[in-house]
Amino acid sequence: MVKWLFVFLFLASAVYVHFRGKVRHRLGRQLLDHSTFMAPVNVLMYAFSRVPTTAFIPEPGDHFPELEPLRANWQVIREEARRLRELQHIKAAEGYNDVGFNSFFRRGWKRFYLKWYDDAHPSAAELCPQTTALLRQIPSVKAAMFTELPPGGELRPHRDPFAGSLRLHLGLETPNDDACFIEVDGNRYSWRDGQWTMFDETFIHSARNDTQSNRIILFCDVERPMKYRWAQALNRFIARNLIAAGASPNMEGDKTGGINRLFKYFYVLRLKAKGLRERNKNLYYGLKYLAVVLVVAFIVWI
Questions:
Q1: What is the CATH number of domain 60-258?
Q2: Which residues on neighbouring strands pair with residue 81, listed in sequence order?
Q3: pLDDT digits over 220-249, tens only?
């Protein structure tokens, strides 16, 4: 009886996540999306969130006053980002060691990690001392990076797997043009220098830069505040033991998390799967759906 209760709760959570918001993936894609497997945890995050669970969070400073030093010092942060860009340190991963953002690199997106669920990367502490000093004063910022979206760059529609954080974007060097934008659950925001926005990254979102100018922002994952201590503890446990394993290096000497150390081996299988998809799309998708069915059958069997 308990087993079937868990199965029902998992399926109900997955259905809720799929239909949440105005924009959704095709059902076939959603079945295989990582957010489906995190659905029961994410539903708890939404249910006990102390901030709105809308696509965009209005007035981030009202909900997170501790973030104000970032906006107040945006020009200082911009200077360090500009220096990094001149040194060509804002870049794609040099190997298969950034599973969380690997697909983004193919369409122009670049990044330089400042921190990832820990203290600053050694490279960031050395090259961006003022920005990392500001971040150290704000424990609720769990991850931070500079991200670049060049002219013609884009991020295809996707949703992040874990609802334990909210995403903050602070414009540093942007086109200041409505043709450079992010769209979250069908709602569009165009970046501007010195201005910020916060959104729930578990809604489907995408981004484009259809201008002739570069776009650099400060990108932060901010811990979602919860109504109860047990919910906050659960959020932090998952972040510390799962999300932190996604750490990716900027350069030699930076930490690489366990998930990313394994990713290079997984990517070999992924390349073979892509080859199969090119040769026989029906067989490829048939095997993917069969794998999902087998996982569900195993859960029911145990």
A1: 2.60.120.330
A2: none
A3: 999 999 999 999 999 999 999 999 999 999
